[in-house]
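Fold this sequence, please.
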Amino acid sequence: MTGQWGVLGWRIPRFSGSVLGNLEPIAWATSAFSGPLSGFLSVFARLFALVVLLFLAVVFLRVLLELKIEQRRRRRLLAAESISALTPSEFEAYVGLLFRKAGYRVRRTGGSGDCGVDLVVHRGGRASVVQCKRYEDNVGPSTVRELIGTMTNVGVDHGFLVTTSRFTAGAEREAKKAPYSIGLVDGRRLVRWARRYGLLGDLRTSQEDDVLG
């Protein structure tokens, strides 16, 4: 390597042919690896795009399947002639459908960890909890007390207790003296409510007026 003095007194290096010759293997190695590397990156990008497309396709198919299942269940609920023949899960969905038809926004919470709440419904800025009891035996005061405890835990002051059977006199007294507003909907009220919206559900219970107004 040789050099000459520049304008500012700096020595400007000049590389001899031997030095440049020493750099040629580096340039060759760089070009040798750049080809396979770019090919690998191209294949990786294609595989990644394929995985993303497959993931989106699976998500789309799952959503489509869930919608079809929900539509099938909704048709079955609308066509149900015997409310008491519904499974507990179907009964919750049936009650939720009635609340929607009454102008409520409905969120189902039934399942493990639901704190005793089957539905949370909203209308007019007010939230209410709903317990659904597909019973054959009459509903007693202990079930009302359970709902009161649930309302305390959740922090709401209005709730509904909906059943396919009847409420005992003790249950009605418990609801009246509760520190919260509780609407009791027995089987007969439930049938009247369903028929108001054109549903075919039927069963035999007592009591006439409709607390849902």
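The domain at 84-196 is CATH 3.40.1350.10 (Trna Endonuclease; Chain: A, domain 1). Helices lie at 17-79, 88-101, 141-154, 169-176, 187-196.
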